[in-house]
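>> received
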Amino acid sequence: MRLLPALAALLLAACAASPQAAAPRPENAAMPTPPAPGETPSAPLILVLSLGEHARLPDASQLAYLALINDSRCPPGVQCVWEGNAEIHLRWTPTHGPGKEFSLNTSPMGGKPTTARMGQYEIELQSLDRGIAPKATLRITQTGQ
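>> returned
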């Protein structure tokens, strides 16, 4: 019986040390500084944004998740002929100048974009949760531009 509390404490410690628990909130997320000319761009950043949320990037530009445009993806547990597609609308606002709005899709079928280049960043929609306000997982890569 004394073993049970010790086991519970070990499990809690393992959960607290997991990468998910240590992941920064999008508004606090930061990427490494841009590489010097001739250097390789830094590792990509993974952001998880909720609908209406925004994140500040290292160059002080911002990325905002504005809307879920449509979601025709096959529901979980159902066999479909086509996987479907979901589209989200985002805005990238540079430090100087007007913002640029764009859409990203979960499926590239039909030539729909799953990535977009904004300033020195390539933004890729990696996954999108289900529901009326799904969280979007975005991969942000500095292109070295």
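>> The longest helix spans residues 3-16.
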